[in-house]
Amino acid sequence: MLLKFAFQDFLDDRKFKNTTEVNIQNYKVLLGGFINYCQDNDVINLEEVEVSHVKGYLKHCQSKGNSPNTINTKLQRIRAFFNYLVEEGMAKENVASKVQRQKTDVKINVFTDEQIHQMLGYYRSLRRREKSYFAYRGYMLIVTFLGTGVRRTEIINLKWSDVDLVNLTMSVYGKNRRKETIYMTEKLAKELSAYCLFCKRFFNKLSNYVFVNRDNTQMTQNSIMLVFQNLQRKMNFSDVRVSPHTFRHTFCHRLAISGMSAFAIQKMMRHENIAVTTHYVAMWGNELKEQNDKHNPLNNLDV
């Protein structure tokens, strides 16, 4: 079977299974790179693909500057592709399963208080000078990400009908499209209420979606990433990437160093597996020690 036909069959299967458009696009880009690599190396038929081709492609990606995390993500997509082919009887084995993942650094960068103040200060200054929707939206995006730990796709799809300013909750459709409830603080609810009033005045008609483009249409994956790419250039932070996921990590980080239990953090982050949560808690263990050394009750007792 031609490799390009197997690839298309795999994509059609993902669409049939109602995989999100975001994931399908990821497969097209990340897995598509491997398909192109094989064809460039005269591997046209599915039966010709060997372990060496998978390793060769990943080494090629490494030479192009791909990080270990990116390479592991690409390997994961290739494995999923061959798992499907084996299940459908189009391949005898998953050649990608014999390729080991790369070791990655366990440190995950998060924002400092100073960096958060800088980003919020940038948008506050813009709001005072321009009173533009761009400034109000950017400020509100940061506050919502930091106050809830929501994912990028969840915030894009957030509707005003999902926001309950009275009971301080919002509903999002998380991973596996499961509807989940997130609790808001009164501070976040107050900010959202003011933002809602601004949107009504600015657009004359309130969109169904909380965060929209300048033409009052729903934001896309690309448009929200452009917001943070612009913010990255303005801030020029050297040690941390300005992205929605960094805000989510920062939210989790603050929960961990506050002393919240792993079980409670799992519920707040909506991790399906508590092993993911304990990984974060263990990662920030040194900071927990520092917090304990600083705030331990014995510090102020004469014992």
Brief summary:
By secondary structure, this protein is mainly alpha-helical. It contains 13 helices and three strands, in the order αααααααβββαααααα. The chain folds into two domains: 3-98, Orthogonal Bundle (DNA polymerase, domain 1); 113-238, Orthogonal Bundle (hpI Integrase, Chain A), CATH 1.10.443.
Description:
The chain has 303 residues and is mainly α. It folds into two domains: 96 residues, DNA polymerase, domain 1, CATH 1.10.150; 126 residues, Orthogonal Bundle (hpI Integrase, Chain A). Helix content is 60%, strand content 4%. It has 13 helices and three strands. The protein has a three-stranded antiparallel β-sheet with strand order 1-2-3, with no helix packed on it. A hairpin with a 4-residue loop joins strand 1 and strand 2. Helix 2 crosses helix 4, helix 5 runs antiparallel to helix 6 and helix 10 packs antiparallel against helix 11. The protein is globular, with a radius of gyration of 23 Å. It starts with a helix and ends in an 8-residue tail after the last helix. The mean pLDDT is 86.
Q: Number of helical segments? A: 13
Shape: globular
Strand content: under 5%
Tell me the CATH superfamily of the largest domain.
Intergrase catalytic core
CATH architecture of the largest domain: Orthogonal Bundle
* Overall residue-averaged pLDDT value: 86
Radius of gyration (Å)? 23 Å
